[in-house]
Each structure stands twice: as structure tokens, then as C-alpha cells.
Design goal:
The chain has about 375 residues and is an alpha/beta fold. The chain has 15 helices and 13 strands.
Length: about 375
């Protein structure tokens, strides 16, 4: 029988402020992308030290727009870590290009620069380093290897994270973020694109709005009611709503508070759990500011009292929710069959797929929750 105490793997922190923020667009009647989205974009750009931030419907659509803006097409190759959420690879196929997987470092769960250097060919037109679980990839090494190849940061988990003092989103050519409820700040669904490139920002801003030459807000507030936008490109409807933007304005102001709280408890987990010989806790160097979207451990089944899956079941019975860190995309049926890939082709990703375990870390947890998680794991 399940313990009555339940600690979810993640819960967003929303409340009265977010509720109040929704009133303005609801009362004004401006519900589609408009002034609240623009305010959210400005705040996000300022926090991440970039010239441009463009709100969209998800990190998936952000990644797709980034590839389209870079003119990725059939015959091109795009390098993607083998251990990431499936959308990082899916967007490459949306463009008709070929996904080329690269292995990960099982200690950081991020792209392995040594393996990256072996995967680049004359057809490589973009690389998507993922800042997994809030830890930035080693961008200096990646840039050294990539040369002039554009880098699209998948920072879905990495709002507020940084590498050598530079925030995620400004480390590559384009950055892409998620505001899914499992992220540190949320708008329900939603995403953000960042760049310091004026031309790319212009292209992506147009593409997210059907390819229109002017925005909905410019059109409706203009002096010529008969004017319709011209369409110079095949675009998409990837606009964020002002309802989401209003929530985002409130949430982004809390980002650093949320991250600092998570960092405090991540340090607590590390201190308390490091003595367990079968459980490896996440580590990072002094050059990194972790975003702590998740606290992902690694179960050493040669030393553990049970398998990773059995341990997760035991914790669930005690009311502690866990998840695998994420999945190895090359092991998913669609990719395995489409590209004739074996799980062992990317051993780092395979190990992370089979032995990673995320334990609860979110801003609705209290000290007693963290103490309880630690005590149950130690008692296994």
C-alpha cells in the first residue's frame, strides 16, 4: 500500500500574483500575442544578457524555428546528443535533414566533445548542444571543435544557468528555452528563442507569425484598417498568448529566487547522499552556474541493493516520486528502426538511459520533505 505522504517529482510555484496578472489581458480583451508577451521578452532578454528574446509556443517550436532560420534542409546533417528529450531530434526531421547522434559524458549527461569531433562531416550544418537538467554544456570545447558551424543551444532546462559568467542563451548562435511546468519558471506551455544576431531575430520573429511582415499588434493598432500584412516566407503559428506572457512576467522575476532555493537543497542532497557508495550525485565545476531544473543521480547497479527500477519502485511505495533523467533517443523505437541504431552504439547515453534517477527537487518542497527523501534513500 502506498504511503500517504506523496512528494511529487516536480510542482510549479504559482499563486495569487500569477492569478492577478491574468486579469489585465482578460479585461483588456487582448489575448493573443501582444504587450504582455513583449514585456516578458524584454525581461527575459535582460536577465540572460542577449539582444533579442522571442516568445513562442514551446521549446520544440523554438528549436524548429532556429533550424528553419539557419536554412537547414534536406541533405544537411545536424548533430544532437543521444541522451535528451525526443524533440531535440524530432525538429531536425521536421526540416528534412538527417539527425547525427553524438554520445554524452555520463558524469555531466551533456554532449561529449571528444565524440563530437568524430561526428562532424562536410554536411554538418548545425550542432545542438543540450544544457541538460540545467547544467550548461562545455561550450568552449564545443566551439573549438565546431569552428564556424552554428550552435543552437537547447536550454529547455537552463533558464538562469550560466557558463563562465555568460548566461545560457547567449553562448551560441541561437538559444531555445522551455516554460513547461517541470521547468524552474513556467507559463504552462511556452518557449523562448534568444539571439544576438539581428538578422536571425528578424527572420524568426516573422516565421513565428505565419511569415507575416508585421505583427498582429502592429496591424490592429495601425492607422490603416484596410492593411493586411504581406507574406514573404512560409511561416508558422508559433505565437505565445498574452495570457501566458502575463504569467511569464511574474515568473521571470522569481527566477533567481527559485534557482537559489534549489541550489541550497541540491547542496543538501549532495552532502547527505555522497556517502552512499551506489549513488552518484551531480557535480559541476566552478565555471558553471547550475539551473537545477532537476537533481539527477546515477545508480551503480554493481553496488546497489537492487536495480535502478526496483529502487524507483521502492521509493514510490514510500511516497517519493522519481523518474529516469530522460531517455536515450537512439533507443526509442522510431529512431532505432529508422536509423538502424544499436543501444550500445552510444554507451554513455545507454548507461544514462538505464541508470539515471531524478529525485524530487522543486520550490514547493519544505525542509521536512528533503529530510524524508534522504532518510528513505539511506535506509534502502
Amino acid at each position: 500500500m502506498l504511503n500517504k505522504r506523496i512528494i511529487p517529482i516536480s510542482l510549479p510555484v504559482t499563486g495569487q500574483e500569477e492569478w492577478e496578472a491574468l486579469k489585465e489581458p482578460l479585461i483588456s480583451g487582448w489575448l493573443t500575442s501582444g504587450p504582455k508577451v513583449r514585456e516578458f521578452e524584454q525581461l527575459f532578454a535582460e536577465r540572460h544578457g542577449v539582444k533579442h528574446a522571442l516568445a513562442v509556443t514551446s521549446a520544440t517550436t523554438a528549436l524548429h524555428l532556429a533550424l528553419v532560420a539557419l536554412d537547414i534542409k534536406e541533405g544537411d546533417e545536424v548533430i544532437v546528443p543521444a541522451f535528451t528529450w525526443v524533440s531535440t531530434a524530432n525538429v531536425v526531421l521536421y526540416c528534412g535533414a538527417k539527425v547525427v547522434f553524438v554520445d554524452i559524458d555520463p558524469f555531466t549527461f551533456n554532449i561529449n566533445p571528444e565524440d563530437l569531433s568524430k561526428r562532424i562531416t562536410s554536411k554538418t550544418k548545425a550542432i545542438i548542444p543540450v544544457h541538460l537538467f540545467g547544467l550548461c554544456a562545455d561550450m568552449d570545447k564545443i566551439k573549438e571543435i565546431a569552428g564556424n558551424i552554428p550552435l543552437i543551444e537547447d536550454g529547455a532546462c537552463a533558464a538562469g544557468a550560466s557558463y563562465k559568467g555568460t548566461p545560457a542563451g547567449g553562448l551560441g548562435t541561437i538559444g531555445c528555452f522551455s516554460f513547461h511546468p517541470r521547468k524552474s519558471v513556467t507559463t504552462g506551455e511556452g518557449g523562448m528563442i534568444t539571439t544576438n544576431d539581428d538578422k536571425l531575430a528578424e527572420i524568426m520573429g516573422m516565421l513565428r507569425n505565419h511569415g507575416a511582415s508585421i505583427s498582429e499588434e502592429q496591424r490592429h493598432h495601425g492607422a490603416k484598417p484596410y492593411m493586411l500584412p504581406d507574406f514573404n516566407a512560409l511561416g508558422y503559428n508559433y505565437r505565445m498568448t498574452d495570457l501566458q506572457g502575463a504569467v511569464g512576467v511574474v515568473q521571470i522575476k522569481k527566477l533567481d529566487q527559485f534557482i537559489n532555493e534549489r541550489e541550497k537543497w541540491a547542496n543538501f542532497y549532495t552532502k547527505e547522499l555522497d556517502s552512499i557508495p551506489w549513488l552518484r550525485t551531480p557535480k559541476h565545476g566552478a565555471d558553471y552556474k547550475h539551473g537545477w531544473q532537476s537533481f539527477v543521480t546515477f545508480v551503480d547497479e554493481f553496488k546497489s541493493p537492487a536495480s535502478r527500477n526496483e529502487i524507483m519502485e521502492l521509493l514510490q511505495q514510500q511516497g517519493i516520486s522519481t523518474r529516469p533523467g530522460t531517455h536515450a533517443v537512439h533507443m526509442l523505437n522510431f529512431y532505432k528502426e529508422k536509423f538502424n541504431i544499436q543501444p550500445s552504439d552510444y554507451p554513455g547515453a545507454q548507461a544514462a538511459n538505464n541508470y539515471s534517477m531524478s529525485i524530487p527537487l522543486h520550490n514547493r518542497m519544505v525542509a521536512e520533505d528533503f529530510d524524508y527523501v534522504v532518510s528513505v534513500i539511506k535506509a534502502l
